[in-house]
Amino acid sequence: MIDSLSTRPSPLAQVMKACVHAYQRWISPVIPARCRYYPSCSSYAVEALGTHGALKGLVLGAWRILRCNPWSRGGVDHVPDRGQWRYHYPHDIPRFELEEG
Predict the structure, then answer these.
(1) Of the candidates 56, 57, 30, which has an alpha carbon nearest to the alpha carbon of residue 43?
(2) How far apart are CA 71 and CA 73, in angstroms?
(3) The pLDDT value given to residue 8
(4) How far apart (Å, rounded) are the C-alpha atoms in residues 51 and 86?
(5) CB neighbours (10 Å) of residue 31?
(6) In whole angstroms, how far apart are CA 1 and each of 4, 27, 46, 51, 100?
(7) Does the record bear Cell membrane in its keywords (predicted)?
(8) CB neighbourhood size of 33 (10 A)
(9) Of all helices (H) and strands (E), which one includes residue 38?
């Protein structure tokens, strides 16, 4: 598995992450929690931008927000590994358990 933390995100991805962090700090506390997934959509977007860069991270984050609606079952949804579009491991297994073994 490729370590997603070893690569530094592009400047555009860093700006996008800063925007999401501003949302998390100032807007999200005012709005009642209603995300149907874990991690939350904004945390997913930050991780996707850090792992995949600006363009693919934006696409993955937007797709996640579109899926987070009242008709969705929700659940655990991990960011896919670098170079992948889908998470290929069981969703009930935490990522840190995959990195240990």
Answers:
(1) 57
(2) 7
(3) 77
(4) 13
(5) 8
(6) 9, 35, 20, 13, 11
(7) yes
(8) 7
(9) strand 37-38
